[in-house]
Amino acid sequence: MPRIIFKCRYLKNTPKAHLANLVEYVATREGVEKVSDSSHILPATKNQQKLISEILKMLPDTADLFEYEDYLKNPTRENASEFISIALENSLDLIGKKKNFVDYIANRPRVEKLGNHGLFTDEGVPIVLSQVAEEVSNHTGNVWTNIVSLRREDASRLGYDNAKSWQDLIRAQRNVIAENMKIAPENLRWYAAFHNESHHPHIHLIAYSINPKEAYVTKQGIENMRGSLAREIFRQDLMQIYEKQTERRNSLNRQSREAMQDIITQIRSGICENKNIEELIARLAEKLKHTSGKKQYGYLKAPLKEVVNQIVDELAKDERVTELYSSWYEMRNEVLSTYVDKLPPPLPLSQQKEFKSIKNMVIAEALNIGSHHFTFEPDEEQNISIEDDGDIAAATTYFEKSAKLGNVNAQYMLGRIYLESDSEHENVEKALQWLGKAADNGNALAQYAMGKLYLTGNHLEKDAVKAVELLTKSAEQGNQYAQYALGKLYLLGHDVRQDKETALHWLSAAAAQGNIYAKYLLERMDSFKDPSILLAATRLMHHLGNIFREEYQKAFGNPLIQVDRKLRKKLMEKKLAQGHAYNDHAPHQSY
């Protein structure tokens, strides 16, 4: 059962005779009035039970009310009376006239009045009850009558046991409400009143557009409104979910985050061997060669989409991914359960929208294989970053001075800073200038960086000869990543003439330094398969690891690894001393 009830429906002018008869019927029946203190804990009477059955039959959505849940758990006369009263009240909009409904929610018993009545609306808008009643009654479009209800313990604990808190909340949420009701914000009119019920305090919220042609609410819109209200009301509780602030949750949080980080690190740094993926990616690469149009998942025909889905679901079979995905679902559902009636059933990874970007990565990998495009993976430690632009600006100023004096490390680091895409300090022209100078001055990291740019044709015209020249210079200085790149290049034989002897030399050199990808290819030197196909599952697994990391940060508020400002500064100083750029934990590893 969610911790917030949100009912959303609209008034029509169609007579509701059968519901009116129900009101007349129950008006004199036992259960409408509060029972005496001496009998409130006795079992519900037969008349109450009969009346509840009839209410549920004629108003089935009342089964979602907190009061009905309480009645099911403990079917006393008091709980029966509470349910009967609130069920009928929540259905008055369907039973009575619009004008009477406005007056009722404004003046009924236990309404908290902010003046002469209990209605409130946008700040600075005066409310004359009779005018509002006429306005709503004469409105020709749909008038939406929403109910938001909490449990008493939650309302008291979180401060939503008074009209002022609800007034502030709805005023803050009014544009969210307008958006999800498909109403232009300036056209939204709303009025609400807080009813301080003993068991479940709630508000009635009347909303409509001054443009009768507006206002349309979908199921998703209702969920969006409920979710937005719940996130604000239960902000403190959700922070406990996000931060795991209690001792028990802190312990679980540390353990789970460490486990998740271990898994993500394994995924992003290890080898994934999957023959099914190899066969599927090779088939997809071949089919895409003969496919016209845009090569993105949404534009592919159904048979090709199915191949992509099969590849993603093969990735999901990896026990590390299974564990991560299960943990992600568990934490996601803990948040969703605050405001969702029924949790959605688990979906296959290929059908989970939060991970849909992996599908286009699958397609990109297949296209790279089909076109023999040489690929590079991101930095292995991207999860630790320097976020203080002030530090970057200060470092850039310092490196500019040092680079102009001929400091080769400063030249390289300036190039790396300026090459960072989608950043305030990106400057490709300066990046190429300083990386080029550093490479000419013998910096192995700069030679490797420039070699990659020439090989991929990124920011520079593709020049495989120049790329091999630079990579060779870097490799001869012991750069294992350049050694691996050269070994793979000569093994593939696409951008250079195939030379297995030279490939063996460079792959062996890289493997001797612990390069796991070089070791992997050395073990499969005699395989008839393209090394790019052999490593396709590994590349995709690394992409997936990055997506999981981003999803955890997005959904649960905190990165899996957080580095405070002082630690970031120390890391930066250490890297600078070692001749690395501020964001360059290790050179890019190529497959």
Automatic annotation (TrEMBL):
It comes from the Bacteria. InterPro entries: ISR_Activator, MobL, MobP3, Sel1-like, TPR-like_helical_dom_sf. Residues 235-294 form a coiled coil. Keywords: Coiled coil, Hydrolase. Transmembrane segments: none annotated. GO terms for molecular function: protein serine/threonine phosphatase activity. Its EC number is 3.1.3.16. PANTHER family: DAP3-BINDING CELL DEATH ENHANCER 1. NCBIfam families: MobP3. This is Serine threonine protein phosphatase 5. It comes from Thermacetogenium phaeum (strain ATCC BAA-254 / DSM 26808 / PB).
